[in-house]
Amino acid sequence: MAVTASTIEVGLELPELSIPITRTLIVSTAIASRDYQDVHHDHVLAQQRGSKDIFMNILTTNGLVGRYVTDWSGPTGHLQEVNIRLGAPNYVGDTMVLTGQVASVEEADATSGRATVTVSIRGANGLGDHVTGTVRLTVSMGANS
User: Fold this and answer.
1) What is the CATH number of the domain that holds 52?
2) How far, in Å, CA of 67 to CA of 43, rounded?
3) Beta-bridge partner residues of 134
4) End-to-end CA distance of the chain
């Protein structure tokens, strides 16, 4: 069920999303985003460059953050801006847990029937914070918007 502007308030927590970090996820999403850097698909070369294994690229992280927020908002949620910062790498075998909290809700625009919501997000793994940031999206005012 989609959220609406009338059901969102500052401090509302989004449900957690756990994402297992698999070799297939890392390699396939790097290829899908045309990121052919060897540290995202070649274990041996990643180690030679000082990494313990291949690791997730920022484009995949960005996409997963967007998915997390739009899964919560439902089909009426429209991403406006994703502003993230990477921290600890997402390595094969770990799990990233995404959490979020509504940071602000701007008054709905009567013409469009949509309100702007900012969500603070965090994606943590066994090493610490992989990603932190904010996502700004618009949501409808009600079921008929």
Assistant:
1) 3.10.129.10
2) 27
3) 83, 120
4) 14
How many structural domains comprise the chain? 1
Does this model's pTM top 0.85? My answer is yes
Domain-located, residue 145:
no
Amino acid of residue 140: S
**Which domain, by its residues, includes 38?**
5-140
pLDDT at 36: 85
Please compute the mean of the pLDDT values over residues 4-26 and round it to a whole number. 93
Spatial CA neighbour of 26 closest among 46, 5, 6, 49 = 46
